[in-house]
Amino acid sequence: MSKLRELGTSGLLTPPLVLGGNVFGWTADKATSFRILDRFVERGGVMIDTADVYSAWVPGHQGGESEAIIGEWLRSSGKRDKVLIATKVGMLDGEGGSKLAPARIAAAAEASLQRLGVDTIDLYFAHQDDEDVPQQDALAAFDTLIKAGKVRALGASNFHAGRLKSALEIATAEGLPHYRVLQPEYNLVSRHKFEGELQDLCVTHNIGVVPYYGLASGFLTGKYRSEVDFGKSVRGGRMAALLEGKGGSVLAAMDEVSAEAGATLAQIALAWLAAQAGVTAPIASATSVEQLDELIHAWDVTLTPEQLDRLTTAGA
Description:
This protein is of the alpha/beta class. It is 41% helix and 12% strand. Helix 1 (30-42) packs across helix 2 (65-77).
């Protein structure tokens, strides 16, 4: 069991790996999802990350499929007290409007609570920024949920530094809840969306960071090393640009560190993330128990400062 880390000032604790729920009901059926969730808890995992929009992109799906499977698992397993549930609002339109309209936040939260079968969402993310809604209005809607006991802590996902900073300033000035956690895209081959001003802001304000795409949709597992590999999964089409950019040099550095550390490339990628300033725990999803076991071992991998620097330089 890895040591628990504080998730910023949210009051929540997690080991340095959060389980991504985007695959539940998509590339992992219900039975497989249940096995993965059981194993995650058995191994000491705590936080499960999902969203109301998962998996609306699948033909015939409407969104909420992942939450519904997690809810069924919570009821059948009786393990609600062993896990933290993070979900999101802002990408699935529906009752109350779209994105972060206050009525939409209220309606979406109720729908998520129903699908999950819980009384409280431990961590509720604004899934994306919404410049059409005054930030104080969105924060006030979240405040109502917190005061009603339906949400414990707030997070922001896909926010630029300027907008996150203004949200924090508005929250302080108006006595509204702060975003305590940030969920950005961040990995060894995609660093520009987080590093710099946004990362500095999170460190300064002690905002816990839980990056998504920690394995770059599988690229950083070493699965895609040439054009012939792109057909290995539904995500293969995204890999050409990564391989043509810094991907090749990053994989070469990862191969070296992997041999030195006795760890897989996936474990190296997640261990590098967990060592970055401001990062509490990367998010990673698994479609099998075997894959999950590999990912969980990432929290046992400690990279040396030289190895971390080598990896960082390869992707610069």
